[in-house]
């Protein structure tokens, strides 16, 4: 065809058709190559062998994709160290804990699985289920109690072996284990706390029930009002796609200060996929040899594994039990009568009774001074609303009139 002349309509159509056929042929060839590659080499016919040797580029590309899939699959696998191996590692860890000048702990959902709260990215985690399009049936969160790991951390803090705890969990279990609030940064909020942001300083209301049943991504009002100024209260939860701005319970200031002083970071039960995005927590502005030494306890792969001084593949409760043994501390038992939530909680006013339908944390027997709503029987269906049910669904935005 002559240069400069634009193509006629039929020529354009013919060119498009030829391109379509070329691509279709390419796709078919790729399918054939993929089928042949799935066969053991000995079972391939001479024709198939010829096709393979003539399609080196496709073979390389398919091989690259296969390796990538394999790598991703391995990362999701839960791996356990042999008991002997784990014990050896914990012995090393205990020496590090004893010698540390400023030890901080980062925790994720993996430390709460023993409290029957599903973790986030484990095989049956919230994220994994949502990715597979399944709904989440949650055990009633009000039944959850601090685990052996939560209790051990509070004990180590009391004995000044742990200086600060940064948690991604919203389940309030660190607070309920007796860890003082100033030693805790709850980066994604706390399901038992609602705040008035109209009051200065922000006025906090700790409750004995999950305050998030009406809240979701970008919708934070809990339906109750500030006793002081009458403004609407909001939850403290930071959903996917949001930036947390509250001072408490997020406590970013203390988290970054602790990280800047830390010589050891112990990560427990977190995939670190979210935490790795906060460079301050890892002192990334410091030269590598001045950064804190990293110890990771997690069953699955984490993006920080290559940087860790030691990776322990074990359940958090198993590791902490061994660690507390090595350090010679008995693990304090969780006692409901000592649960700080009951002394921190602001009781509902009579007109606020019925402003929620979540089962409250049952008070210890005989604790009559704590005003609690009558326990309501709620069905054990999937939880709707709140940080737990909605909001964490990646990419789904649902608007509902509030
Ligand atoms: Zn107020």
UniProtKB/TrEMBL annotation:
This is NAD-dependent protein deacetylase sirtuin-7. Residues 8-28 have a biased composition (Basic and acidic residues). GO terms for molecular function: histone H3K18 deacetylase activity, NAD-dependent; metal ion binding; NAD+ binding. The gene is SIRT7. Its EC number is 2.3.1.286. It catalyses: N(6)-succinyl-L-lysyl-[protein] + NAD(+) + H2O = 2''-O-succinyl-ADP-D-ribose + nicotinamide + L-lysyl-[protein]; N(6)-decanoyl-L-lysyl-[protein] + NAD(+) + H2O = 2''-O-decanoyl-ADP-D-ribose + nicotinamide + L-lysyl-[protein]; N(6)-acetyl-L-lysyl-[protein] + NAD(+) + H2O = 2''-O-acetyl-ADP-D-ribose + nicotinamide + L-lysyl-[protein]; N(6)-glutaryl-L-lysyl-[protein] + NAD(+) + H2O = 2''-O-glutaryl-ADP-D-ribose + nicotinamide + L-lysyl-[protein]. Interacts with UBTF and the RNA polymerase I complex. Interacts with components of the B-WICH complex, such as MYBBP1A, SMARCA5/SNF2H and BAZ1B/WSTF. Interacts with ELK4, leading to stabilization at target promoters for H3K18Ac deacetylation. Interacts with histone H2A and/or histone H2B. Interacts with DNMT1. Interacts with SIRT1. One of its GO terms (biological process) is regulation of mitochondrion organization. CDD domains: SIRT7. Zn(2+) binds at residues 196, 199, 226, 229. Belongs to the sirtuin family. Class IV subfamily. Pfam families: SIR2 (PF02146). One of its GO terms (cellular component) is nucleus. Residues 55-89 form a coiled coil. It comes from Varanus komodoensis. SUPFAM superfamilies: DHS-like NAD/FAD-binding domain. Residues 1-48, 382-402 are annotated as: Disordered. The keyword tRNA-binding does not apply.
